[in-house]
Amino acid sequence: MRERSVDLKREIKGVLVVDDEQNICAMLTKFLRSSGYACESVNEPAKALEVLKRNGFELVISDIRMAGSDGLQLLTEILQIDPGLDTIMMTGYTNVYTYSDIIRAGATDFIAKPFELPELKAKIERIDRERKMQRELQEFNIAMGVLLQRAEKDKETLSENVVSNVKTLILPYVDKLKKGHLRAEHEAYIEILETNLSEICSPFLKNLSLKHAHITSMEVQVANLIKAGKGNKEIASILGVSLNTIMTHRYRLRSKLGLKQQKVNLSSYLSSIDF
């Protein structure tokens, strides 16, 4: 099928009729003008090409078999002049030219002679409606693209605001708490809080949970503490669970991260992981 580059901004206003029968040209010209279209007609294919080069039309209605015209050759030459031009081809030789042959050659539509004038008008209006729908769809896609870009930008701004607020509104108070007289247990909690706040401002925790959605929240906490350099006993104490529980979580983390059969240090892997 011939590829056509359709100009979606076009609305059908000007129509060129091409037919070697003068009475058909006169009839169609009169009808189309009465229907609100600017219409011209010619009786020769060569003349049609000359007129197309000089004047702007949105639609050509042409007979296929005319004296001096080689079948669909005129259609090919019309589309060479204006690839985006809509065309309705007419013929009384439906046993020679099938609908699929004509559409494959690049025509927009086809009408068999003899036809009723309202049928022709309906085809023109259909082409206009389709162009309008395509324009609206194109405009919608452009608008959606703009909205998606804006949403992405807003998301980046939100992330920047979260980081800024954590660093300016929360971390200073964490620093003050660290300088106070705290028990070892409270110092550990403050350290966890500081680490977790830092993770909120970094892509590690988010990427780990998004890229590996099958990892549980407890496993994320264990991974976070391993990444921070905590030992198994220290992690168990901080999270308030048994050492065996931590060992089980480490085993599951290695398995889910694809490290089960590899001699890779889990802490080093979590520290260098890049998603």
SSE topology sketch:
Elements: E1 14-18, H1 22-34, E2 38-42, H2 45-54, E3 59-63, H3 73-81, E4 86-91, H4 99-104, E5 109-112, H5 117-178, H6 184-200, H7 203-211, H8 217-227, H9 232-239, H10 243-256, H11 266-272
Parallel strand pairs: 1-2, 1-3, 3-4, 4-5
Task: Describe the structure in your own words.
With 275 residues, the protein is α/β, with parallel strands linked by helices. It folds into two domains: 14-138, Rossmann fold (3-Layer(aba) Sandwich); 181-272, Arc Repressor Mutant, subunit A (Orthogonal Bundle), CATH 1.10.10. It is 60% helix and 9% strand. It has helices spanning 22-34, 45-54, 73-81, 99-104, 117-178, 184-200, 203-211, 217-227, 232-239, 243-256, 266-272; strands spanning 14-18, 38-42, 59-63, 86-91, 109-112. The protein has a five-stranded parallel β-sheet, with helices on both faces. Strand 4, helix 4 and strand 5 (109-112) form a beta-alpha-beta unit. 20% of the residues are buried.
Number of strands: 5
Tell me the count of domains: 2
Q: Look up the CATH topology of the largest domain.
A: Rossmann fold
What's the arrangement of strands in the largest beta sheet? 2-1-3-4-5
What is the makeup of the main sheet?
5 strands, parallel
- Alpha-beta classification: alpha/beta
Estimate the mean pLDDT confidence.
Answer: 82
- Element pattern in H and E: EHEHEHEHEHHHHHHH
What would CATH call the architecture of the largest domain?
A: 3-Layer(aba) Sandwich
